[in-house]
Design a protein that fits this description.
Length: 180
Amino acid sequence: MTRYVALLRGINVNGITITMAPLADLFRELGYTGVKTVLASGNVLFDTDTGTDTEPDAAAIKSRIEAALSETFGYRAWIVLRDVETLARIARDYPFEADRDGWHPYVVFGSDDAVLAELAAAADGLDPADERVSAGDGVLYWEVRRAVGITSPFSKLSGKTRYRSSTTTRNLRTLHRLLG
């Protein structure tokens, strides 16, 4: 049995509204157990047996969930799927001071290594007094001063349409909540 977390991209923003009870029900209908949603931003923990005919690996699980989300909720679904051990390592490897006063700690997940590399390269010119980005294993770690927030250069860049279909960002505190 493997415990996974599905990080849904782009729900409860831009007109795509999904409440957590129907979302959890969908995961249960797919046969997953131990289903738990965390916050209203599309974070679902669940257990499954991998290596079966219907779910031979994480890629098959991801595709199955995305198809079910698209069909059930009527939008083009995209998720990041990580097992809980990998998510714990990602959170543990956060390279900045996680509780830095006046700063937000984030992790940017991506499905395309080239996109993450492009974003990391663009972050080279950032003002470290306002924000910093560091590449990790399949993620970017980002910290930004609260006073700057969504008006920061990296926030504006990573929020562009070209990156929305392959990245999703979570606050480090959310990841800690997911890990319980």
